[in-house]
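Q: I'm building a small set of examples for a reading group on sequence design. Run inverse folding on the following structure and report the sequence directly after it, with nothing in between.
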């Protein structure tokens, strides 16, 4: 997966999140999906940061791996 592909996916997720948040008709139904999108966005940003760091330090960016939600979500804890 290239940086460009990851950024495209991030854009798609942000667009969907914004659309779901703007839907006033069923906010409760969208809550679970919005949480999933937020987690997936965190994973994508983490993967992109890994790729950029590997590239910066002369490593192969394609060796970056998508980390599980639990790992990514516990960065601040």
């Amino acid at each position: 997966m290239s940086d460009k592909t990851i950024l495209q996916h991030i854009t798609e997720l942000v667009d969907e999140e914004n659309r779901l948040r703007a839907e006033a008709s069923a906010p409760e139904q969208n809550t679970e999906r919005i949480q999933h999108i937020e987690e997936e966005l965190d994973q994508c940003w983490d993967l992109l940061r890994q790729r950029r760091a590997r590239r910066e330090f002369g490593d192969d960016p394609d060796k970056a791996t998508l980390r599980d939600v639990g790992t990514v979500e516990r960065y601040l804890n």
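The chain has a mean pLDDT of 91.
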